Amino acid sequence: MKRLIGVTIFMVMQTFMAVGQSGGNYASSVGISGGYVEDGFGVMATYNYHLNRDSYAQLSIFAAIAEDRGTFDIPYNIFTVQPGYFIKVWEQRNFKKYALNIGGGGVIGYEVINNGNNTLETGAIIDAKSQFLFGVYVGVEGEIILGNNFSILIKANEYYHINSDIGHFYPYAGIGLRYFLF
C-alpha cells in the first residue's frame, strides 16, 4: 500500500512539474457535482489545472453516503482523494458548446462501515471493518458550455478499490457545475 501511495504521489508531482516547465498559461477550473453511488448519494469537488486546450490534471475529493440493503441495512461512508489526468476526445467545433473528456488516476481514502461499530442493533456481528482504501479509477466527463466562465458538468467514474470490504468496483454518476478561473 505504501508503494502505491508513493507511486501515485510521484505521478501527480511529475504532472505538475511538467506543467510548470511547459510555460503555458492555461486556465484552471473548479467544479462540484452530486449524484448516484451504489446504494446512496455521492458528492465530488474537483480542481483542474489545464495543461493545454486538450488535457488537464485533476485533483478530486469525493464523499459517498450510502446504506447496503440486504438481510441487514448497514450504513457506510467513503471519503477519497483522487489525483488524475484527463484528455479531450471530442469537442463541437462550431461554437465549442460541448466537450467530452476521458481520464483516470489513483484513489486513496477511507471507508467507514456502520459508523465504525462492528455490531448491529440486532446483535449481529459485521465481518467487514472500517479501513484505509486505495485503488484506481477511470472517468468520463461531459461539458455543456454556458458562457466564458461556467459549464454544466456531467461526470461518471468507475472505481476499483483494491482492498475494500464494501466491494472492489464502485460507480459514481453525477451532474454539477464547473467554474473556470483565468
Q: Could you say which overall geometry the principal axes of the C-alpha atoms support?
A: elongated
Number of strands: 8
N-to-C SSE string, H for helix and E for strand: HEEEEEEEE
How much is the radius of gyration in Å? 18 Å
Helix/strand-derived category reads: mainly beta
Q: Determine the fraction of residues in helical runs and give it as a percent range.
A: 10-25%
Provide mean pLDDT, rounded.
Answer: 85
Strand order of the largest sheet: 1-2-3-4-5-6-7-8
Distance between the termini: 37 Å
Low-pLDDT residue intervals, each spanning 5 or more residues: 7-23
Largest sheet descriptor: 8 strands, antiparallel, barrel
Number of helices, where a helix is a run of at least 4 consecutive DSSP H or I residues: 1
Content of β-strand: over 45%
Helix-strand blueprint:
Elements: H1 2-22, E1 28-37, E2 40-52, E3 55-69, E4 73-91, E5 98-113, E6 131-145, E7 150-161, E8 169-181
Antiparallel strand pairs: 1-2, 1-8, 2-3, 3-4, 4-5, 5-6, 6-7, 7-8
Pfam families: TraO
Keywords: Signal
Signal peptide: 1-18
Provide a descriptive summary of the structure in words.
Pfam families: TraO (PF10626). This is Conjugative transposon protein TraO. InterPro entries: Conjug_transposon_Tra0 (IPR018899). By secondary structure, the protein is mostly beta strands. It has a domain at 38-65 and 81-117 and 126-167. 12% of the residues lie in helices and 62% in strands. It has one helix at 2-22, and strands spanning 28-37, 40-52, 55-69, 73-91, 98-113, 131-145, 150-161, 169-181. Strands 1-2-3-4-5-6-7-8 form an eight-stranded antiparallel beta barrel. It is elongated.
